[in-house]
Amino acid sequence: MAKVSVLSRPPAGWDAYVRAHPEGTPFHLSGWSDCVERGLGARQLWVIAEQDGSIAGGLPLAHVKSALFGARLTSMPQAAYGGPLAESVDVARELVEAAEVEAERRKVQYLELRLHTACDGIGDGEHWGGNDLRVTFGGPIATDDDAILKAIPKKTRADCRKADKVVTATETPENFDTFHGLFAENQHRLGTPVLPARFLRLVAECADLGPRILVVRDAERPVAACLSFSFAERILPYYAGAAGDAREAFPNHGLYLNVLRFARRAGFTYYDFGRSKRGSGSYDFKRRWGMDEHQLAYRFRLVRATELPSLNPANPRYQRKIDAWKRLPPWAANLLGPLLSPGLS
To answer: Where are the alpha helices (DSSP H) in the chain?
Structure first.
């Protein structure tokens, strides 16, 4: 058996371990955890396994507190993917068992593991549950710009060509304020509290995450923007927004087409289109790009909660709140959103 400890900071060599592990993601890196702690106020802890003096596995967690939904342990907040990284299934199980003990000790509502792929013995048994709500999309990036277009299904390709006639694209860190304005507008239009600007700026400046900010413009006007992460050979367009009154420019098609193009030119070979919830507009949009769809295996270990969490905009119980949020004036949504969104992470 491995020696398992719960730490307040990652051990030396953790990021190197993440980058070398075949299931490592940018959300397992200490840089992501630092952004979550400093930008969202969620305290971090690390369940670490050691064998013969070396890291044999780890499970980064965050203690998220919400006045509306109570406290929980999550791996990881705002992340598409999380859960244990380990040298064996046995070590992964030990990490999760230690996390369960910590969740019980802290008396949280539940422990959440955002697993990319289901694993035997992880998240099984009494008090555990899950759902098939979330999926991720992705695929290889073609070798030139013409091939990128050809790989996109006909209808979506036609909309991309329409965007190409109108928009231009730039990718630079100086695009942050433009990105943030479009992202906040988009979140308000969806009825979702916007994330704190502090968190987004920390992410955009975290070198470990390989951030890239792309903006597309119709003439001189910014109409869509995206904050992407890069990890190994992958590009992950993650936070994005578009102007609601610019549909004739097909801003989202222009945005993601150019993310693909800029990623290819930078040497990336895989496009991770990120997670979406089944039945959402994001899901319907992404599935039209012809990429592979993969079922995510999020698992929840109930502690004080008596039923699985359902923070889903499609849930009828939240629809009135979403509609009310959409009716707020933008200044109010931008003021109140950062106070509420960390608890929804």
So the answer is: 14-20, 30-40, 89-106, 145-150, 154-164, 176-190, 197-204, 251-265, 281-287, 316-327, 330-340
User: In angstroms, rounded to a whole number, what is the distance separating the alpha carbons of residues 43 and 77?
Assistant: 11
- pLDDT greater than 90 at residue 21: yes
Q: Which two tokens stand for residue 89?
A: 């299934």
Burial of 336 (0-12, 13-18, 19+ CB in 10 A): middle
Q: Quick: pLDDT tens for 213-264.
A: 999 999 999 999 999 999 999 999 999 999 999 999 999 999 999 999 999 9
Tell me what the mean pLDDT of segment 168-177 comes to: 93
CA 15 to mean position of chain CA atoms: 18
What pLDDT score was predicted for residue 66? 86
pLDDT exceeds cutoff 80 at 148? yes
* Block residue for tokens 């019980």: 104
With contact defined as beta carbons under 8 Å apart, do 234 and 253 qualify? no
Q: Which of 3, 334, 20 is nearest to 187 (CA)?
A: 334
Beta bridge partners of 62: 44, 74
Residues 6+ apart with CB under 8 A from 125: none
**Could you give the C-alpha distances from 24 to 44, 58, 201, 237, 312, in angstroms and in order?**
18, 11, 23, 17, 27
| CATH numbers and ranges of domains, the chain | 3-135+296-306 (3.40.630.30), 142-268 (3.40.630.30)
What percent of the chain has a predicted confidence (pLDDT) above 90? Answer: 78
What pLDDT is recorded for position 314? Answer: 60
Q: Let me know: does 60 contact 75? Beta carbons within 8 Å.
A: yes
Distance between CA 184 and CA 80 in Å, rounded? 20
pTM score:
0.93
Burial status of residue 300 (CB atoms within 10 A of its CB: 0-12, 13-18, 19 or more):
buried
Instruction: Specify the higher pLDDT residue, 331 or 101.
Output: 101
